[in-house]
Specification:
The complex is a heterotetramer, with two copies of chain A (427 residues) and two copies of chain B (148 residues).
Chain A (H helix, E strand, L loop, with lengths): L8 H4 L4 H6 L15 E2 L10 H14 L9 H21 L7 E4 L2 H14 L11 E5 L8 H10 L2 E5 L12 H4 L4 E7 L11 H10 L3 E5 L3 H4 L4 H4 L3 E5 L10 E5 L1 H6 L10 E5 L2 E4 L13 H17 L1 H20 L4 E4 L10 E6 L4 H10 L2 E2 L1 E3 L4 H6 L5 E5 L6 H17 L4
Parallel strand pairs in A: 1-13, 3-4, 3-5, 5-6, 6-7
Antiparallel strand pairs in A: 2-8, 7-8, 9-10, 11-12, 12-15, 14-15
Chain B lengths: L2 H4 L2 H8 L12 E6 L6 E9 L2 E10 L2 H14 L4 H15 L9 H4 L12 H26 L1
Antiparallel strand pairs in B: 1-2, 2-3
The chains are: A alpha/beta (427), B alpha+beta (148).
The complex binds pyridoxal-5'-phosphate (PLP) (2 copies).
Chain lengths: 427, 148, 427, 148
């Protein structure tokens, strides 16, 4: 995949990008100074097509009711739409059974759900003093802090894979790092900072050898890659709606039925019960057991529409476009003097987020200049402080791409970086 | 909403006069099932003799649909070989989960065909299946116990 | 408030109900059989005015970005809108400081947040073996199960107030029930099943005498009553957006600053940290400390619009309308032979949810007949099984009202109940 | 977006050549503050003598705005009585939180008025306040310690 030509990758990957862009109302925005919006912050949150927004509006205008509780026409319609969304999401990720898909509010809740139920669990999946939990140094904070809380609270030990200079996981010590005392291995599939695509199957194989549970943070993977959880080798997979053209307020945890059945409930309340007495309660079967209270109904419906939208394009095409635009961006950014990419600089096993430094200009200042030109990127630690520290930096600038990103967007970024350098008189 | 298609006369008859109601001895397995949505409950016992459903006895609290379907269940399955009863069970479940698209088989389901209309009311399918799921659960337990 | 005339209470309480109804697109729906929608299930979830739907659509079409992280114009706009929503909610409930308002996904999460952090906490607010937690028999499952989980997991004891025959809390044993070993008292303000408005201030006073923390489930109160948390006497108050003309996927926990500061974090992840290292992390100040991951951004903005909507009507008027329509309904329902109301039958200290039984017709069957006439009510245990058991019933039918409910809606209910009785040949 | 209104020449000068930078002895209090959003950090020490800010020394990593504002802070407050320094602090914080609606007082803020434009960039207000919040925190600690 190296040496990609600088000509329109969009054409090469058979994706009608102008048609796609026309679906996203926000892409017509004109920003301060008359600059058109160049949105390169999709790893932070993606934009939403009209189809997703409309699905939620229609729900509120015509079918709104609580789910799973009401014996009336609106309740039937709302419940059917909510459960249809679950089926869509299950199909989208290759889940064997829709009941294995638990709706949460975001990926962070999904990961915390796992860490908390492992703390309270009994039996095989309980994490206790002396046990070990393995993560990596390139995790998003949402896949670090829950495990820090779990291990501190239970007296277990947190260990982690380091990162090579190229921004890949250092798997050289895998057999000692994942050992007989390891109870959980939780890894990010696609890094939101470095862009690295990690060898989840290989790690899962080793983890399963020692009987550890495998958790995958797929927050950046499900939006970008064709996903088949059945063949991934993971036991639990977390992801989030707002990064995959879906709304905010919705995420999902997929888990193997046996595992989800063995875990105790997380949040207690309405809808997750079989029966409640003051003296004690019993739990509903999956997926209700993990969905206490009124769920994000309109949001699940919006996520269902998002999944329809991505499926209509085709996830292979989405992935190919991401790959092509990333290759283009890596090549163009590579030509900028004083610019250092944090993470793999070749578009191999690499997702569409590129973090970089520009010598002599702080990321905040870089992104401020870009913003003055209508180019939206992220500056900071991107919720991955340890990975930044690994590379000896406090923060970086990140450009990230999605189905609506064009080579012209990347060109605008490159022009903007030139201006930033000139403004701050470097290079 | 066509109330008549839901509340067939047969259903209302079974509701007002449930067959085989009450809990009886002997039995090999007893289960208690709840519809978490509405709280409807059934306690159900099965008595198997030589691979045949000798008795189904129950104490049910619930709506017309759940009461009537448990009554029809008992009526239909008592006296049948367990295998055959399981086939009837499957046929009934298929009918209920068919969203009104499945043609009911009167030879197999007898009075059970009256529930065809229920399949069009998603919120009531669980009511119709409450007793049936309990029976399957209890029978599975009884069979395992007999073998074990 | 007894003896209210049967003539249009709407007129009496100075609320322009036709104007309000015009804001709710769903109220124009024609249901199966050509019946107009009569929505009497607002305690389950309320309907949404165009203003709330539009606020979210506009956000997605023009300002969508992640919050608190981005240095670009969309990020600024989105963050400002999200934080403005917090200020609106804080003002609406009389919070001293917007940072005391934590956005959650629903009321259930808010209550679980409290129960979980009390389990993991150290210091004054930790719940330990031998401690006591006091709730009531009329709680929603979402204010029962979290405390069952907490007390089981910590070895504490769960105790509760019973209910009188009139459906009021039995406070006769308050001084022994709430004693020196009580660490938490958690009560529903307005019951979603019985409609009872509980004397929260009185209970809070006793709880504070013994140093217990006071948690209030205000899920039905914030939608219906003018609320001032500063004078309520509670330490923590939970409520939910979808019952107050807001969207799904958003709820809130208000807490006194000292209490929230003393509790450990609940969910760990992005945005709730001050700094993260692999070896350990520190937490952001309130409210971020309790908001891990990407929050329900559009949903918070929708809730802000909901609060604006209710404020424009005036919560005193909303409450007066609720009171009037409830009084009218109690009177009309009271005239029906064979109908028994569960809960206070006088509209005094009473919210707008009326649960009832009709002798000889199961609630499912009642609501099915009503639904065939376009009248949507709830049948079942309304997530309050213990309260139903207290009255020796498994389930009931519930009609509940809101700002858009008219006396004509109540009349349609009464007519429908007549038909149900006829259909099942009772009475 | 008017970059010039944000990046005044004074700011860029202080950024390129920060005044009073580096950590020095003696000091009564040292604090470490972080901007959780972007990770910018400052370690800051205060040295008070007879109720006067005798020295402010710091080690800061961050963007032009946070670096320059810490430099201006040191420049402005060193040599001032603590009370007066606190007033300057308040004036600066008000200016920053004023969304561009507050008229800067040049008599009080001197070079600090250059930050008036930052107030219009909400994401950068935290940058401008990083060093100032650290100073207040450190000074409060030093005063308490002196009394205690
Ligand atoms: C009194 C009461 N408490 C808690 C809840 C739970 O709210 P939610 O389902 O939004 O979490 C509800 C509503 O279902 C309620 O009525
Ligand atoms: C890799 C990764 N994991 C987890 C998350 C957390 O997702 P959310 O903020 O939706 O909880 C994100 C996004 O912020 C992410 O990029």
């Amino acid at each position: 995949m190296t040496g990609v030509s600088l000509q329109a990758p969009a054409a090469r990957v058979d994706i009608d990008i102008e048609k796609i862009r026309a679906d996203f109302p926000i892409l017509d925005r004109v920003m301060a100074g008359g600059h058109p919006l160049v949105y390169l912050d999709s790893a932070n949150t993606s934009q939403k097509p009209r189809q997703v927004i409309d699905a939620m509006t229609t729900h509120y205008e015509q079918f709104n009711a609580n789910v799973g509780r009401a014996v009336h026409q609106l309740g039937d319609a709302s419940t059917a739409a909510y459960e249809r969304a679950r089926v869509k999401v299950a199909d989208f990720i290759g889940a064997a059974d829709p009941a294995e898909v638990i709706f949460t509010k975001n990926a962070s809740e999904a990961l915390n759900l796992v860490a908390n139920t492992l703390a309270w669990g009994s039996g095989d999946y309980a994490v206790r003093a002396g046990d070990q939990v393995v993560i990596t140094e390139m995790e998003h904070h949402s896949n670090i802090v829950p495990w820090q809380l779990l291990t501190e609270r239970t007296g277990a030990t947190l260990r982690w894979f380091g990162i090579t200079d190229e921004g890949r996981l250092d798997l050289s010590q895998i057999d000692s790092l994942i050992n007989e005392r390891t109870k959980v291995v939780s890894v990010v599939w696609v890094s939101n900072m470095l862009g690295t695509v990690n060898p989840v199957a290989e790690i899962a194989r080793r983890a399963h050898e020692v009987g550890a549970l495998v958790v995958v943070d797929a927050s950046q993977a499900v939006p970008q890659l064709p996903v088949d959880v059945a063949s991934l080798g993971a036991d639990l997979v977390a992801f989030t709606g707002h990064k995959m053209v879906g709304p905010t307020g919705i995420g999902a945890l997929w888990g193997r039925t046996e595992v989800l059945n063995a875990l105790p409930p997380f949040l207690g309340g309405g809808s997750m019960i079989e029966t409640v007495a003051m003296a004690g309660s019993t739990w509903a079967p999956l997926p209700a057991k993990f969905e206490a209270g009124t769920p994000p109904i309109a949001e699940a419906i919006g996520l269902g529409a998002a999944v329809d939208y991505l499926s209509a394009i085709g996830m292979d095409r989405v992935a190919a476009h991401e790959q092509a635009i990333t290759a283009y961006a890596l090549e163009r950014l590579g030509d900028i003097d004083g610019l250092t990419i944090l993470g793999p600089s070749e578009p191999v096993d690499r997702g569409g987020a590129i973090s970089f430094e520009i010598a002599g200009v702080h990321p905040h200042d870089v992104s401020q200049v870009l913003d003055s030109l209508g180019v939206a990127v992220r500056a900071g630690h991107h919720c991955a402080k340890p990975a930044h520290r690994r590379f000896g930096v406090q923060s970086s600038t990140r450009a990230s791409f999605y189905v609506y990103t064009t080579t012209a967007d990347v060109d605008a970024l490159v022009d903007g970086l030139d201006q930033a350098k000139r403004f701050f008189q470097v290079g | 909403m066509d109330l008549q298609s839901l509340y067939q006369a047969i259903i209302l008859d079974h509701y007002r006069d449930p067959h085989h109601a009450g809990l009886r001895e002997p039995y090999e397995a007893e289960v208690h099932h709840v519809n978490p949505t509405c709280g409807d409950e059934v306690t159900l016992r099965v008595h198997l003799v030589d691979g045949t459903v000798s008795d189904i006895s129950y104490d049910a609290e619930g709506c017309s649909i759940s009461q009537a379907s448990t009554s029809v269940l008992a009526e239909l399955l008592i006296g049948k070989p367990v295998d055959e009863a399981m086939t009837v069970h499957e046929t009934f479940v298929e009918l209920m989960q068919g969203r009104g698209q499945v043609e009911p088989d009167e030879d197999v389901l007898e009075d059970g065909v009256a529930f065809a209309g229920v399949a069009k009311f998603p919120a009531r399918v669980k009511c119709a299946l409450l007793g049936w799921m309990a029976w399957k659960d209890a029978t599975a337990q009884a069979v395992v116990d007999a073998r074990g």
